[in-house]
From TrEMBL:
Organism the protein comes from: marine metagenome
Protein name, entry field: Xylose isomerase-like TIM barrel domain-containing protein
Stretches assigned to the Xylose isomerase-like TIM barrel domain: 71-299
Amino acid sequence: MILNRRKFIKNSIAVFSATTLTQNIFANEIFKKKLKIAIQLYSFGPNIMQGKFNLLDFPQFIKDNFGVKGAEYWSIPFMGKENDDSYLKTLKEKSIDANADNLLILVDDINIQTMKSGPSLASSVKSERDLAIDFHKKWVDVAKKIGCHSIRVNLKSEESNNKKILDNSSESILKLIDYSKNDKINIVIENHGGITADADWLVSLINNIDSKYVGTLPDFGDYNFCMKRGALDFEDIGKVCENQYDKYMGVEKLMPYAKGVSAKSHHFNEKGEETSTDFSRMLKIILNSNYKGYLTIEY
């Protein structure tokens, strides 16, 4: 699986890199839009938490092994180091040394020991929303210190009324933006299952917030567009979805608001090629949008 993952990353870079597509009909558009490749730290998260990979080496590692300068981060592998200014300064310095562009942080409030999630920005309980806002402010500070332009937030809720979820989420994100805008840090929402898997709802949320500091993070993953799922099956994360939003349509609807793009993958063939997403089709959707930024590979 590690070999297939490495093959996938290299194959994805080849697919999305204009330097290897000089004979491809998309090449001129890729050059014109200046689309670049990034890698998400999540792809190496288990190795970091097992002590097999040093987060501080990430910027240089992706440069040396994949020729990539775009670096996206995940909050969990920081494992408390987000509170250590010296550590964050070192990460920023190592990023500069590697000529890396630090882009965004995927923020998850999860207790690794219990796998229990913390308070949500979309909670129907105001006190929980306030706690979630304070939690995310810390990651806005981290983003500033290491040079990222955005943090990704989650919007989980047990509320059955979608309008109430939208109102609660809007209120929380606007308060968070009031804090983050001073440092020009964006708040981005990924289609991450549940209510956010509904691209129409997510677009309504973005329009309701109506701020240049909010945006989307379109994600290719099947699970990411699952609006309702059955019992979780880690052996096949996609098969238990009971209400799947069409991911090609979803990405197309989210692209006008995108501040990043996640080329997430789960299933590979023996050549290391992703089998659940038509990457050529996704590339067409991206190129037909006004997006000019990084395409991030995530496994």
